[in-house]
Amino acid sequence: MANTKNAVIRYRALDRCFSNRRVKYDINKLIEAVSKALDDFGDDEKNISRATVYADIAFMKSSQGYNIELDENFKDGRTRYYRYNDSNFSIRNSLITEVEINQLQTTINILSQFKGLPLFEWMDELIPKLKQGISTAQNDDIIIDFDSNRYLKGIEHIGTLYNAIFYKRVLSITYQPFEHEKASEIIIHPYFLKQYNNRWFLFGYNPDAEKSNWNLALDRIACIKEIKKKYHNNAIDWIEYFDDIIGVTKEDGKAVEDITLHFFDKTGKYIETKPIHGSQKSKWLDNRLLEVHLKLIPNREFINLILSYGENVKVIKPQKIVSQIKQYLGNAIDRYKF
User: Quick check: is 232 in a domain?
Assistant: First the structure.
């Protein structure tokens, strides 16, 4: 369990003790109460020290915490007891802390990057309201950025498709692949949306196709209409579906293959820190050559990825991929011949 969550449990336990007028809580009873609260929550932190409880009390009294006020005269001889000055006070009724405000501000700055994207239109109205309700000296500078493109063609369809998947609606989609001169109507039972290489793809069932699962690039969709048909449910684990491939193309009948690649110099260091695929196992053959072993189903996205590394990669096996890469590189060289 995260320490921040432990701290919240401790603060709430102390809050209950400080509010209780029927029991006198000295430091030992506070430790017992905090320990029991953590134990009831299933946490493994059993040995709560005095230093931890004293630090929690100091934080709760601070402006960064909850600004609590304790009765400083609540003593019996040398024994100090702890309770609120105001018996009606509780941190559950108090405003959020400065720490929580800063955390919320960071969250808002991250969420703000999704403004303008379909499916996140509600943020355009919500985020200004949240900012208006936050008083903080922290600046509004964005210090984290995600790879997203709100101007991507077809992105306007995400909200419609998401709702169709969620509510299990059958769609008629006007679709025009790059290689076709005219668009055609496709009936699809939408199942899953996936982003790859800054493009979005819709996966679903097309009753008129030989393949059971189709994927459509959103940037080739011209029009979407909902139609009255019974929705064809699927039992596919889509996260597992993509385990054996790179990208979105999974051809029926193709099996996982053992692939060996050699990466050279700095590219090897890059591949070591950013694996190509979850199956990747690698070892340095010398200080300039990284050998990478993969288990996946080769597809066009995998081939394109290998080609993107140019002279810094060599396919060792299987031979059919070696031949394929040689063919592509030969074609590329031919384009430079005059």
Answer: yes
- Average pLDDT across the chain, whole number: 85
* Total residue length of the chain: 338
The verdict on pTM exceeding 0.70 is no
Instruction: Specify which residues 282 forms β-bridges with.
Output: 292
Domain boundary among 181, 211, 238: 238
DSSP 2-40: -HHHHHHHHHHHHHHHHH-SSS---HHHHHHHHHHHHHH
117 found inside a domain: yes
Q: Are 25 and 82 in contact (CB under 8 A)?
A: yes
Q: Is 126 helix (H, G, I), strand (E, B) or coil?
A: helix
> What is the DSSP secondary structure assignment for residue 70, as one 8-state letter?
B
The residue written with tokens 């384009």 in the block is 335
Instruction: Report the distance separating Cα 31 and Cα 34, nearest Å.
Output: 5
Q: pLDDT band at residue 108, thresholds of 50, 70 and 90?
A: low
Assign 3-class secondary structure to 213-243: EEEEEHHHEEEEEEECCCCCCCCCCHHHHCC
3-state secondary structure of 86: coil
Query: Are 106 and 68 found together in one domain?
Result: no
Res. 162 pLDDT band, cuts 50 70 90: confident
For residue 118, the enclosing domain spans 97-148
CA distance 58 to 68: 9
CB atoms within 10 A of CB 128: 13
Show the tokens assigned to 212. Answer: 């059971």
Write out pLDDT tens, residues 206-248: 988 766 568 899 999 999 999 999 999 888 899 899 999 999 9
Total domains in the chain come to: 4
